[in-house]
Amino acid sequence: MKLRKENSTNNINEIYWKENCGIAFTLSLIGGRWKINILSYLLAEKKLRYNELKSRLTGISERILVLKLKELEQDDLIKRIVHAQVPPKVEYELTELGQSFKEILILMDQWGETNLKKLF
Amino acid sequence: MKLRKENSTNNINEIYWKENCGIAFTLSLIGGRWKINILSYLLAEKKLRYNELKSRLTGISERILVLKLKELEQDDLIKRIVHAQVPPKVEYELTELGQSFKEILILMDQWGETNLKKLF
DNA sequence: TAAGGAACAAACAAAATAGTAAGTATGAAA
DNA sequence: TTTCATACTTACTATTTTGTTTGTTCCTTA
Q1: At residue B102, what are phi and psi to the nearest 5 degrees?
Q2: What does the alpha-carbon distance between residue B94 and residue B30 come to, in Å, rounded to a whole number?
Q3: At B6, is the pLDDT very low, low, confident or very high (cuts 50, 70, 90)?
Q4: Same structural domain, B38 and B16
Q5: Which of A10, A85, B18, B74 is the one with CA 20 to 30 A from B26?
Q6: How far is CA A117 from the centre of its chain?
Q7: Of the candidates A112, A78, A116, A108, which has an alpha carbon nearest to the alpha carbon of residue A95?
């Protein structure tokens, strides 16, 4: 899944900062275009199916959705619940760790909404 | 400075989310490998020269440092103070808007430090 | 007159992230 | 027996971000 070059400067820098700086560590888990959106939908709606997430995340491709869900699961921020059915039914929800982002997400949302308005 | 393709799906998605989601907007300003670190050093030390930032940001390249400082300045998060001297002296400090990130930075730092410890 | 410091700039290259399009598995319903 | 729905894979391509290297400017001091 990961194709990161073990010893690229980029990768070395990321590791260094993740281990030595709380903020960098935090950002490494929720950074990028989609992860916070996934988290905040799950925060608001508790439990969502794959397709429900897909339709809410306007513009996301299936590949990226699956990829981000996997990464979030590996980092123990979300939980994957598989129902043995046909057609398949898979639900996602936040773990306890995922829930602990709540405050940060709320603050980031407030900051964003406040400052977005200034631009329009 | 920007070489973004006006109508790549990637760019379209970013714009859509920036305009419609506070968190996405926030993240668009502080995301990436270095920006939050720059902000938090400036938050802690008030005012820093170019070289001082460079030496604190272990591993950063000059090109990226300059680029990120420019972006932060354009987004009005930091202020560039030029002293007319030779050799040059340029200082950076947070704007008021930059300062308003304080709470978020602190929370992200706390979250990170707490959860970093669990890994070691 | 040559070297030096601070803060960049420019050309190029590598790495990482995101997107596209087509295909797979499963069993039930038509 | 073919179609259908859901939740993905896979192979490939494009875009974006990050890093490397070398060079510039300007006055100052040796």
Answers
A1: -45, -55
A2: 13
A3: confident
A4: no
A5: A10
A6: 25
A7: A78
Q: How far is the CA of A71 from the C1' of D3 (A)?
A: 34
Supply A44's token pair. Answer: 């608001």
Q: What are phi and psi of B3, to 5 degrees?
A: -125, 35
Q: For the beta carbon of residue B110, count every other beta carbon within 10 angstroms.
A: 15
Angle, helices A102-117 vs B102-117, to 10°: value is 160
- Examine residue A78 and state whether it is found in any structural domain, yes or no: yes
Of B13, B22, B61, the CB nearest to A59: B13
In a shared domain, residues B39 and B10: no
Rounded to a whole number, what is the distance in Å from the CA of A14 to chain B's nearest CA?
A: 7
Residue A74 Cβ under 7 A from any strand D atom: no
Segments forming the whole domain that contains residue B109: 33-117
The pLDDT assigned to B73 comes to 97
Q: Tokens 């989310």 appear where?
A: B17
pLDDT for position B4 = 86
pLDDT digits (tens, 9 = 90+) for A56-108: 999 999 999 999 999 999 999 999 999 999 899 999 999 999 999 999 999 99
Q: How many domains does chain A have?
A: 1
Q: What is the rounded distance in angstroms from the CA atom of residue A33 to the CA atom of residue A64?
A: 10
* A13-30 confidence digits (pLDDT tens): 999 999 999 999 999 999
Q: Which two tokens stand for residue A31?
A: 């950074």
Tell me the CA distances in angstroms from A95 to A2, A75, A108, one per residue in order.
Answer: 23, 10, 20
Residues B46-75: tens digit of each pLDDT: 999 999 999 999 999 999 999 999 999 999
**What CATH number is attached to the domain comprising A75?**
1.10.10.10
- Is A68 among the domain residues? yes
